[in-house]
Amino acid sequence: MLLAAALSGAVVLPGAAGCARHAAKQETGKPVEARVKAETVVVGERTVAETVEVTGVLAADRRTDLAANATGRVVRTFVERGDHVAAGAILAQLDARSAALSQTEAKANEDSIAEQLQAVQTDCARDVALLAKGAISQAEYDKTSSQCRSQASSEEAARARAAEASRAVGDASIRAPFAGVVGERFVSVGDYVRPFDKVVTLLAIDELRLKLSVPERAIGAAHEGTVVTFETVSMPGHVYKGTIRYLGREVREGTRDLIDEAIVDNRDGALVPGMFVTAHLPTGESMRPVVPKSALVPVEPAQAVFVVADGRLHERVVETGTTVDDGVAVLDGVTKGEHVVVHPTPDMLDGMAVE
What we know:
Helices cover 28% and strands 41% of the residues. The protein is an alpha+beta fold. A six-stranded antiparallel β-barrel has the order 3-10-13-12-11-14. Strand 15 (297-299) and strand 16 (302-309) form a beta hairpin.
């Protein structure tokens, strides 16, 4: 009996030890779940402007491809691309020697005919007195009067030719019709230009025109004086403003939109004509959830936030709307009262536990 008991004990003890080791393995071998620290904020609601997104293109307030309006060889240029010029500034100079000679000749001819006209007018005045006294016949008077009229016409034609010659001399100096910036220069010294050849492109850009493609469903929201906000592809994050001044009056058949124009203050020169923009046209107001800008995570082609619920992270794709101070209105994705992570880190993943 004692031997059996001893054997029995020898059998039981190793089994008990094996069970203990298995339990210990379960405790020590269990994977520890990763947890992250997250600073959160409660989502609130604010009254925000409802907008519709439209596309647009910036254009110069005034733009001209300035032509030579004269014939001649370019002897000097005064501007380069990007130069700012005042109204009336000389942009290029043509060879004016031939025009100057023509002007001198036309002026001399004008002076000669004017002297002749003065002499004929003296004769006419004298013949009027003689006719009244009966000293000359009506036929003689009519002949003198005809000469006076003919000479007066010649004098008028001579003045016109002199003025044209003077204009040709003036046109040899190609001037800016308004203050602006040179977009491009088309001529160089030595080029021979004709009246319709382009010399420079001149742009007035202190104010720009934002041409907005307003969809048919949003036409009623666009009024003169409505302020729109917009961003450019080249400068993301910078929000600019424009005020609608000119309203289109015809919906384009192919695209079902019309073109309205907003005026944009560009005295700092930050914007340039031709830029493509995405604009927001206000359509009214409503209560919307607002999250901090720092809570947004880029998720192509949209944005997302991390919501903390039941101790875990939940990644939500959101549709954002109007910017409000340092926050962004959310059209869809989160609701008032939820907790969103303020400064999400790259290691945060959907479903992770939060400390």
